[in-house]
Each structure stands twice: as C-alpha cells, then as structure tokens.
Amino acid sequence: MSTVLFRNFRQLVCAGAPGSVLRDVDLCARDGMITAIGPQLPLTDVDEVVDCGGLTAYPGLVNTHHHFFQALVRNLPGLDWTTLSLLEWLDTIYPIFARLDEDCIYHASLISLADLLKHGCTTAFDHQYNFNSNMGSRVVDRQFEAAALLGARLHVGRGCNTLPMSAGSTIPDAMLETTDAFLADCERLIGAFHNPAPGAMAQVVVAPCQPVNSLPETFPEAAALARRHGVRLHTHLSEGENAAMLDRFGMRSLDWCESVGFVGPDVWFAHGWEFTPPEIARLAATGTGVAHCPAPVFLVGAEVTDLPAMVAADMTVGMGVDGQASNDSSNLAECMRLAYLLQCLNARHNPLPAPPPERYLHMATAGGAACLGRTDIGELAVGKAADFFCADLNGLDYAGADSDPLSLPAKVGFAGPAAMTVVHGRVVWRDGEFPGLDETQLRSAADALLREKLDGHLAPLRTPG
What range(s) does the Amidohydrolase-related domain occupy (predicted)? Predict the structure, then answer.
C-alpha cells in the first residue's frame, strides 16, 4: 500500500464542466486511486508528499486514436501533403512501413508516449495495424513494455488488414494477414494483457483497420470475438472511403457496419468527417462513439467533422492526435485548440452553433474515457484514478488569461510541456524530466535504430525538392 499526498494546488479542475474548479486544495491517492480532495488534508499515514504549490491541475487527457508506428517518418520534406496526392502518399510511405520490425515499434511507442505524457496525456489508445512480414509475433507486447517503462496507461487496438491490393485494398500485400491469424493474436493478447479492473494500466481492443481494406468476414468475426471476451471494438470510418464502399457493397460505410453488427456502446470509430446528420442520429441512438482527430481534417479531410451535430445528439465524442503520418506531433493538448479553431472557422457553414470552448476539454478527458469504456478515468474525484497534469499559469504569458481554466486549453492553449504529469498516483514527468530515466539515452537509441533500419530508405525523402 502506498499513499501520496499532492499539496497546495492553486486550482484543481475536477472535470471539463462548469462548477468543477476548486481552489487551494490537496489531493490524496492510495495505490493510484483518489481517496480525498480538499483543503489542508491531514498528513496521517502518508508515504510521500508532493508539493504542487501554485500549479493548476487538470484531469489527465485521454487520447482515443493514434498510430505509434508512424513516429519514425515525421517531418520529412518528401512526405508533404501540400505536394502529394493521397495515392502518391500511400505509394511512398507504405513500402517504408512494410520494413518496420518489433524494435521499431518499441522505439516508436516510446517516442509517441513521451510526447503525449509531456503534454498531459495520461491514457493513450494506439491503433496498431502494421503487422508486416518483417515483424515477429510480439509487436503489441513491445508497446506495453514501452508504456510500462514510461509509466503511461495504454490501450492497444490490435488491428489488421486482410484484403489484397488485387481486390481493391490500398495496403501492400506485405502488410496483410489472414483473419484467422488476426483473431488468434487477439485471443493471445487479451489473455496476456487485458485487465478490466478499475485502475488498470493495460487493456486490449479488437480493431480491424477499416472495412474498405478488409475481407467481409473479418469484421463480424472480430465483433464476435470481442463480445465473447467483453473487450471493445474500434476502426476507421467515414474518412473518405464511402465512395469505395458504395462501389464495392452498394452501401455507405456505416450502413455496412450496422449490417454486420459493428456498432453499439462497445464501439467507437476514428474520424467520421463524412458522417451525415441522419447517420449521427443513428450513432447516438446505438451509443457508438467517435474519436475526433482535428489535425487530419486540416491536412486531408474534404469536410469538417460535424461536432455541433454530434454534441447536439449527445454522442460519445473523444479526441485523438492520430498517427504522425497526418499529424507530425503527438500533443493532445494542442488538439483541443486545433479542434476549437476548426469549428470556429466552420461555424458560418453549419446551422448549429460550434461547441463552447470548455467542451473540448470534456472531449479530451471524460469523452475519451467514455470511448474507451472507462469509468475510472477522465475526471478527478474520489474513487477515480489519480491521473492528472499540472500547468504553471503564474507566468506573464498567462496574465489576465487564467480566470476561466475550463476554456483556457481551447482558447489560449498551453505554451509548452506540462509542469508535471501524474499517472495512477505516480509522477512520471516533472520539471522537464522523466524521473529515473535518461531521456538523452533513449533518444540516442531511437536515432541509432533509424540509422540501422531505415536511413537508406528515408534519405530520398529527407531532401526537399
């Protein structure tokens, strides 16, 4: 048993809702779960005291969609969406992804999780669908290993692609699996890692990549397996593939998912910028969630995600950074502001009002927790996990701007990394350091891996022009 007392918060934002800001309080956590919040909590039976004087605490952010493996191809001039079409981009990048192995996935997971933790994200979902012929059989295992090293709470969506390119897939055959192999590894991972208990640090999601790149049987069989084990389901949907689905099946993506049982309160979809108002109403009625990823909308989305309709329908909406192929950063705090600005820009084209600024904090915390099926994270309250991040709003750059901490993440944003990030009652990031870890050494190892495995293949993409 370990009890930690976090003392002297200037402000503590309990949730992304009005009336949830406390001032001059402490927070006590026992074995990672919150036991008390209030002023001047007693020091009795406390194993550790952490001074949080002057800091403003927010619930830990919950990332609901990512692709860690793409971290190794960030910021390459030859992969610029301003110069490449989608098909050109796919033709360029997927041969590189097909070369990644387990070590690459481990280091890419460290890179992505470090960025997330530094900026206040305490729970991350990664959609790992890259299982190529170079990889061994312990890809997701290495992701959980990386999360354990950094102290992050991690959900991994075991993805797959099963449709050959000759049948219309955009995925190279080197990255294909059979449905049976996919399901067998899902079974293994659920048995090895999935923990449904409150405060769990590791969970597994069954997550075939997307219907347009899968054989028809992959999705209903995935849904049957997930429901047999009581785990959640995830996939990409309504991000530009509806025309292809109409050509192949004679129905839109959501219609097809409904026809095979891949909707419901245990399902959330990534993106959804093509969802129509009637489809949004159906999603709300079935309890199906959506991970809104604003950065890809700026880069590749033909339409702006209809958040006003989703909020009006009381849909479950979380927020995600997406993979670095369409967002070279893993900063979920930044995504709150991107999402807000995107909806403000689009407000003149939508009959419904844009969600208010505090709503984006709700999406990135409680909304994300709901997508993942977690009732123990997403807010700060007794009985919940002690997951939070702290911002230092005492500098001149925040003068006059911190009177409304609920709206601040969307309207003002955070100028840099969090002052502190706490996961399950443990300080995992503070004052520019991961306690107990040598970040320079971790960076050197990642750079060495890039040189060994990918340098020759990335060199042409590193030269502008």
Answer: 57-428
Tell whether 436 is covered by a domain. no
> HSE-up of 341 (CA within 13 Å, CB side)?
14
Which phi and psi angles does 35 have, rounded to 5°?
Answer: -110, -20
SS3 per-residue string spanning 372-385: CCCCCCCCCCCCCE
DSSP state of 65: -
Query: If you search the block for the tokens 């807000």, which residue do you land on?
Result: 340
Based on the domain organization, do 325 and 404 belong to the same domain? no
Q: What is the CATH number of the domain that holds 407?
A: 2.30.40.10
Q: How far apart are CA 313 and CA 315, in angstroms?
A: 5
Q: Is residue 168 part of a domain?
A: yes
Nearest to 269 by CA among 227, 210, 216, 354: 210
Share of the chain above pLDDT 70, in %: 99
Residue pair 429/421 in contact by the 8 Å Cβ criterion: yes
Q: Is-contact 377 410, C-beta < 8 A?
A: no
Local structure of 433: helix, strand or coil = strand
- Give CA separation, 219 vs 10, 30, 140, 179, 186, in Å: 49, 41, 20, 9, 13
Model confidence pLDDT, tens digit, residues 241-254: 999 999 999 999 99
Transcribe 109-122 into DSSP letters.
HHHHHHHHHHTTEE
DSSP 8-state assignment for residue 434? -
**pTM beyond cutoff 0.90:** yes
Q: Are 13 and 20 contacting, i.e. CB atoms less than 8 angstroms apart?
A: yes
Rg (CA), the chain: 21
On whether both 346 and 420 belong to a single domain, the answer is no
**Measured between alpha carbons, how far is 11 from 281 in angstroms, rounded to an integer?**
37
DSSP class of residue 300 equals T
Number of domains in the chain: 2
Please give the DSSP secondary-structure letter assigned to residue 199. T
- Burial (CB < 10 A; 0-12, 13-18, 19+), residue 350, is middle
- C-alpha distances in Å from residue 91, one per residue of 86, 165, 172, 263: 9, 12, 9, 31
HEC string of 358-410? HHHHHHHHHHHHHHCCCCCCCCCCCCCECCEEEECCCCHHHCCCCCCCCCHHH
pLDDT tens-digit map of 36-68: 999 999 988 999 999 999 999 999 999 999 999
**Looking at this protein, which amino acid is placed at residue 21?**
V
**Does residue 186 share a domain with residue 109?**
yes
pLDDT at residue 465 above 60?
A: no
- Tell me what pLDDT residue 464 has: 62
- Could you give phi then psi for residue 249, rounded to 5 degrees? -115, -10
